[in-house]
Amino acid sequence: MANRKATRITTLTDALSARRVLHLKDAAALLGVSEMTVRRDIADNPGLFGYLGGHIVPAADIESDVPYELARAADSHATAKREACAHAARYIRPDETIFIDCGTTLEYLVDLIPENYSITAVCYSLNAADRLTRKPNVRIVMLGGVYHPSSASFSGDAGLETLDRLGINVAFLSAAGIDRQRGATCVHFHEVPIKQRVISLARENYLVVDRSKIGKLKPAFFAPTSAFGAIITEEGETAVA
């Protein structure tokens, strides 16, 4: 048993060295075991592996991109995030194109897309893309570029060029901080060009956050609050105090 586990760990380490990121399902197929077994192997080896949005990455990739880590944020204010997304979901309409920002809030919005809605969803994070693949009537446009493990997202000119070729009806944006004077901010500077390009292109923009983000100021500014048709929290549409 121990030898088989050691072999799995070595195989998984080698695969990540070559690919940098591996979906849980692909890892299970590669190792010839269940997804639960792979999860246990990951949990037993935190120094080797990280798990983000259904994907396995080298632990060093996460540790090298602190202070914000997607995996640690996932359970923070989860109920409030779900409730905020429930309010935002009324802006999802059939036969339209929507943009879903990165982070741990808007993944709950994906779950609220009605199964019978035929829509195009644009995203640039693995956790959003992973959930979108479970929606049979959703066409996914994944923006590419350089991968950032801390937010499980991509950035770069390739993604911006793709955005310029799209018609986006509704954009759902996330933020790590909303300040009355300074506006919407995030932790990672690599997210800013994508957020700003989307805001300039989309017909409607909505900022979806839980109220714990209001009053906070993070290092990377991306838009004044006036750029959004509404700021949506667990309490519904709200003004910034």
UniProtKB/TrEMBL annotation:
Provenance organism: Sinorhizobium mexicanum
One GO MF term attached to the UniProt entry: DNA-binding transcription factor activity
InterPro entries with a match to the protein in the record: Carb_Metab_HTH_regulators (IPR050313), DeoR-like_C (IPR014036), DeoR_HTH (IPR001034), NagB/RpiA_transferase-like (IPR037171), Tscrpt_reg_HTH_DeoR_CS (IPR018356)
Top-level taxonomy: Bacteria, Pseudomonadati, Pseudomonadota, Alphaproteobacteria, Hyphomicrobiales
Pfam family name, one: DeoRC
Keyword list, A-Z: Plasmid
Superkingdom classification of source: Bacteria
Gene3D superfamilies, per the entry: 3.40.50.1360
Record protein name field: DeoR family transcriptional regulator
Coiled coil: none
Database matches in PROSITE patterns: HTH_DEOR_1, HTH_DEOR_2
